[in-house]
Amino acid sequence: MPTEIIVALIGLGGSAVGSLIGIMANSRLMNYRIKQLEDKVGKHNNLIERTYILEKRMELFNEKIKTANHRIDDLERKEEK
């Protein structure tokens, strides 16, 4: 077998191994970044859910305050009469 073919096959093998190592490293990095992004999205979604619950509670408290104010107004009107 000529020396040029052996050198070409060794170069081909080295290029293939180097490419595979690069692809695997890139794949690991992408998986890590996707995991980090999923964690951030999960935290954001949790914050949105908590905000929604707080908004519902605020509506309830505002309604209670309105009711209390109406009762106070009614009591003040009774005292005036």
Please render the helix and strand layout as text.
Layout: H1 3-80
Structure description:
- The chain is mostly helical.
- The chain has one helix and no strands.
- The longest helix has 78 residues.
- The radius of gyration is 35 Å and the shape is rod-shaped.
- The mean pLDDT is 94.
Q: SSE string, helix = H, strand = E?
A: H
Tally of DSSP helical segments:
1
Low-confidence stretches: none
How many strands, which pairing sense, and closed or not: the largest β-sheet? Answer: none
By secondary-structure content and strand pairing, the structural class works out as mainly alpha
Taking the alpha carbons of the first and last residues, their distance comes to: 119 Å
**Strand content range:** under 5%
* Approximate shape: rod-shaped
Proportion of helical residues: over 70%
What is Rg?
35 Å
Extended strand count: 0
Overall mean confidence score, pLDDT = 94
Key attributes of the depicted protein:
1 helix, mainly alpha, about 80 residues
Give a brief description:
With 81 residues, this protein is an all-alpha fold. The chain is built from one helix and no strands.
